[in-house]
Every structure is written in C-alpha cells, then in structure tokens.
Amino acid sequence: MKRIAIIGLGVIGASLGMALKNARPDFEVLGSDIDPPTVKKAMEMAAINRPLLDEDLCGCAIVFIATPLRIIPEVLIRIRGQISPGTIVSDVGSVKSWVMHQYEKYLPPDITFIGGHPLAGSDRSGITGADKYLLQNAVYVLTPSAAADAEKVEILYKLLAHIGATPMVLSSDEHDRMVSKVSHLPHIAAASLMNMLEHNLEDLHLAGGGLRDTTRIAASNPELWEDILLLNGTAVADGIRDFISQLENYLNVISNNDDTSLNQYLTSAQRTRKNMPLVRSSLQHCADIVAIIPDKPGIIGFLGTLLGDADININDIQIMGVRDENEGSIRMGVPQSQAYAALELLKNNGIKAWLRS
Amino acid sequence: MKRIAIIGLGVIGASLGMALKNARPDFEVLGSDIDPPTVKKAMEMAAINRPLLDEDLCGCAIVFIATPLRIIPEVLIRIRGQISPGTIVSDVGSVKSWVMHQYEKYLPPDITFIGGHPLAGSDRSGITGADKYLLQNAVYVLTPSAAADAEKVEILYKLLAHIGATPMVLSSDEHDRMVSKVSHLPHIAAASLMNMLEHNLEDLHLAGGGLRDTTRIAASNPELWEDILLLNGTAVADGIRDFISQLENYLNVISNNDDTSLNQYLTSAQRTRKNMPLVRSSLQHCADIVAIIPDKPGIIGFLGTLLGDADININDIQIMGVRDENEGSIRMGVPQSQAYAALELLKNNGIKAWLRS
Fold it and tell me: Which site among A55, A175, A314, B36 is 20 to 30 Å from B344 CA-CA?
C-alpha cells in the first residue's frame, strides 16, 4: 500500500486528501496541521486516514506541503532528516521559483522535489471549505527541477490526472511569469483602482457594474497577497512595468486625440477577452439565455422546475438586476444543444427571453 | 397637456419614453430615430405616442437627445431653429463637459440646457433592449449650466424622480472627473490587461475567476468607448497619470521588499472595496448563502421552490462552479432578515449551506 503525507490541512490540503482517498481507497493518506482540532476534523471528513507523525515520514512515497508559502522553509528543515531517499516532495503554493530555491537549499539531493500549483480557489478558507471536487477539472501546474527523475514526475502527473485535475508541466520561471500576468497584475490593478478612490469615496456614488467586476478581487486577504506579490517580486515588477507601458500607450493616443490607434488598442483587447477560455471545462459549451422575470418568491423555483421537467440542466445562473419591487432580469446558462428548446419553453410560458450573444 | 420629445430611440431613449408614458399618462411623448422601423417599433412598445416631426418641436416642453455622443452637435443644429424659447434641452451622454460646450455653441441663450447622464446599462443595445424599469433606482446625473433657470432644473429633477430614477446635480467637470475614475479608468485597466496578453495567449490557460472578473468590460464595443475616452480626454488622461502613480507605488514597495507599505496599500484597497455601495438599492440588505448542490436538471427549481414556499425571495443567484458531472456550488442572495431561516430550511433538507462573509 502506498502512503502519502499531507502537511497543512487547509482548504487545498484537505481537498487533496479527500480527492486522493476517494480515487485511491488503497492508499493510506496521513496528515498533520499546526492546529490539532483540524487534524481531528480531517479524519471525520475522511480527508486523511490518520494523523501524520514524524516517524511516518520515512515510509511516505509522496509528501505534499500545503501550508502557507512562508512556512515552507521551516517544514523542509523539519522533514529533511525523516524522509527516505527517492521520496517525492511537492507543494501547492501559487509562486514557484522561490519555492524551488527553498527545495534546493534545504533538501538532500536524493529527494525528488516537484513544485505544484493547483489553480483552484474556494470561497472559504480552512478545512471547512474543503471539498473532494475542488481540484476536479482544475489546471494543476507542476514545475519539476531540471534534475528531477522523469519517472517520478510521471507518477505525480498520473496521480493528479487520476483525481480529476488537469496537470500541466512548466518551468518555475515560466509559471511565475504567466501567473504574474493573469493573476498578480489583475490584483494590483484592482487594488490600485481602489487606492485611487480612497480619498474620494463620494465618487463611488457613480460606480456601476464595471467597477464592481473590475475591483472584486481587491477585497481579498492582504496578508495572503502580500506574500504572493513579494515572493514573485521579480516577475510582478516586470509585469507592472509592462502594464504601465500599456497605459502610457492609452495616455499618448488619448492626449493626441488619435482615434485610429485608440480603436486598434480597444479592438485588440476585445478580441483577446473574447478568446479567453473558461476555467471550468464543463461550462464551455454553454449558451446564455436572458429572461425578464417578476421579482417575487418562488419565481426561480418556477423557472428551474419548468426547465428541469424538460430535462434541461441550468449550469449557470445569475440575477442581473432588480429594477424595482416587481421585475428583474436573470441570466441562465444551458447546454448549447438545448438553448432553443429552453427559449421556446420560456416564451410559451409568457416569459420574455432571448439568447445573449 | 405637456409634450416631450425624445430624439434617438435606442435602449436609453426608448426606456425613458416607456417610463415617462408609464408614470405620466397625461403627457404626450413624441420620438424620432434615424431608423424608421425603430420609430414604428417604439409606438408598438408604447415608448412614444407618435413620431416626432420637425414642426412638433416648437410645442415641446422638454427635448431629450438620446443619440450617440458624436451626433449631438448635428441634432442641435437641426433643432435650434424649431424649439421655442424656454424649452428644456437635455441629453443622456456619458460625458458632460464636452456636451455642455456643444450646447453653448449651438443653442440660443433663451433655451435652458441641462446635461444628463443616467447610470443605467443594459445587456442589450437598441430599442429591443428597452424596458420601462431600466431607469428605476438608477442614479441620474444632471449638469445644469451656471446660467440655467433654477425652476427648470427643478422641473426636470422632479420628473426624473417621478419615473423612479435618483437624480443628482453635479457640475459637468465634477461629473467627468468622477466617471473618469469609476468608469473610464477601469475600462482602460481591463483593456490594458488584455493588451498585455494578446501576444501570449497561452498564458490564459492559467487564468482564473480573478482575471475574468477584472477584464469583463474589455469585451465592450470599441467604437462606443473610443468616443467616451476621447470626449472625456482631459479627465481620462489625468486619471491614467494618477493610476500610473499608484502602480509605481506598488512597483517601489515590491522592488524594495517593503512588506509593511505593501500591506498598507492592500489593506486600504480592501477597505475601500468593502465600502463600495451597491448600485441597485434593492440589493443592499442582502445576505449571501452558498450551498453545495447536485448538478442535475431541476435542482434550481427545487431550491427556488423550497425557499419560495417559505416566502423567502431569492434576489440574487449565481452558480459558482461546476466541479464535475455530479456537484456544484451556488450563491443565493436573500433578504438579510430571512438569511437564518433560509439556511435552516436548506440544512433541514440535507443541503450543505453556509453564510458567505
């Protein structure tokens, strides 16, 4: 029987444990956490078989470190004397080059270390947010060191694919550059837009859905982001410089009243946005229906039952605006193949509805 | 009987007509559009009583210009010889100082011009997107000129309040500065983030919900935004410079590894974001419930009916993620006073649910 250790049983660590135990009941999953009640809770939730003790480490085929980034060095110092040669050590941190340097610094050369970053977020942090499906369909980046044993990389890759994640092998530098652009820069942009307004809060009276969407992530935990931005400092600083030069392009064309170039920039941005893949692959073949509905108790139930009875699955739904006490509009994602049937059904029931382009 | 003219029957013009006819059936609302079938459609939709002819203009108490911004000067040239002294002329454009200059340039001094900007968006453009509730609860900015007759401003103010909008009087410069920060800059930020990625589309494989939210508005119509950004060029250029200096703050603290200052910036941004008012006042006293639900036809109907039967109104709903074929999580907004009752009801029906902080 294969034994796997998970150090840190927060939302990612515990979800990983649940997924492993679910997919491979023959494995023994051991876990530890700085907080003893969390370990007890992990057993109740079937995220681990039993608590991980220091003496168990020598028998583990894979050790996942699922602690906050800053804790990784002290974990490596604690485990390096216990793990056996050949063990695979990985982590789940959202910055990779810095972590790879910690591995190099603290682990003996007979250990295979492979950086890991599951792109899975949860609305909840801590073990109470754990869920055996959290990693399902999530891109899971692996950053093996140049010296990593290819067979060991394959073992980890296949295990992650087996629990339903989508593994992707990248160099740690490449990973860090990519996430600086698609994750860390958007965070700084959102935060900067909010910083601009902090001394003019009355400006927010004119704020609409655009600002709300654009700055939603600025509400996230500052401590978490402080670590991410500093530990990926080089790539993030490059990203900010690149972002500033894009903004200077806009500043120049607007100052020069250059409508042709401005239109080119905006059109190119629109095209890129429209090409953005959806993260959840199951939402990809979805058509959006917008309907005007009375805003009263039971109407969502009526709509849901109407489509459900026709075996049409609503796989995305959002109330777009409540205009007054009486009416609102709602957006529903349905499988593309059932879009026209759904539209017909709504119209036959007197509901104003259309397909969103 | 009061006669009102609406020139341009797109989503805003036609929605304004519907709201006016609904609130003041004693008024006669006349409308024109560059596209003759649109005028016919406006009559069918009860957005106007009849088409507006040039000779009707002299009898109109208020003329609303609801065309694209760029068209306003030629509309003013066409109507200025027809309207009577004392007529109120207004518009619905999202830039105000430029429009006020057009009014000054083209209208005789005995006309009261008052700039207008309803902050109401629709998912659809053109008359087919019109809706008598579109302006309901929407902030509607009025920018009277310094010379404007105070009584006339009050007439327009009260009429807009009467149709359910929330009028707010500002100077045109103040309006333009405010919207540059809360609307035009977020647009440029979203577009710039997309421009950064246009030559590295493969980076989008690591994109998550953060990037999707932050850049959603970059998918909007480039022609519309080209006009807005150029016609509010001065305020937008100031805004970009301010935004760049915020980004330089982040660049400095990250380059200097200054965790204390970085934490201050992020914490301040988080506080401002959490203070952001919701635009739709009816959503303000809403609590968010997150539930894990099986992903199958009819489940939305089941949930909606469950809460509806208990007279709990779901006034916001969103499917947050579909993990695999079997399960997903859903967010539902319910009135704050009913949040615990809703939670209890869901739990009693075997649904894992919690309040989102």
Answer: A314
Coil, helix or strand at residue A20? helix
Class of domain A175-274: mainly alpha
Burial class (CB in 10 A: 0-12, 13-18, 19+), B2: middle
The CATH 3.40.50.720 domain(s) of chain A lie at: 3-170
Per-residue model confidence as pLDDT tens digits over B190-229: 999 999 999 888 898 888 878 888 998 898 889 999 999 9
ipTM of the complex: 0.80
Interface residue A354 vs chain B (CB under 8 A): yes
> A27, A25, A37: which is closest to A59 by C-alpha?
A27
Sheet with A28-32: strands ordered across: A50-51, A28-32, A3-7, A62-65, A88-91, A112-118, A139-144, A166-169
Q: A285-355: which CATH topology?
A: Alpha-Beta Plaits (3.30.70)
Contact between A181 and B196 using a beta-carbon 8 Å cutoff: yes
Chain B residues whose beta carbon lies within 8 Å of the beta carbon of residue A163: none
B257 in reach of chain A (CB within 8 A): yes
- Residues of B (227-256) whose Cβ lies below 8 Å from A: 229-230, 233, 236-237, 239-244, 246-251, 254-255
pTM of the full structure: 0.79
B199 in A contact zone (CB under 8 Å): no
Model pLDDT for residues B299-330, shown as the tens digit of each residue? 888 888 888 888 887 877 777 655 544 567 78
**Segments of chain A assigned to CATH 1.10.3660.10:** 175-274
CATH topology of domain B285-356: Alpha-Beta Plaits (3.30.70)
Parts of chain B belonging to CATH 3.30.70.260: 285-356
Q: Which of residues 102-121 of B touch A (CB under 8 A)?
A: 119, 121
Task: Please return the burial class of A263, using the count of CB atoms within 10 Å of its CB with bins 0-12, 13-18 and 19+.
Answer: middle
User: At the fourth CATH level, which superfamily is domain B3-170?
Assistant: NAD(P)-binding Rossmann-like Domain (3.40.50.720)
Distances (CA, A) of B72 to A237, B84, B90, B128: 44, 19, 10, 22
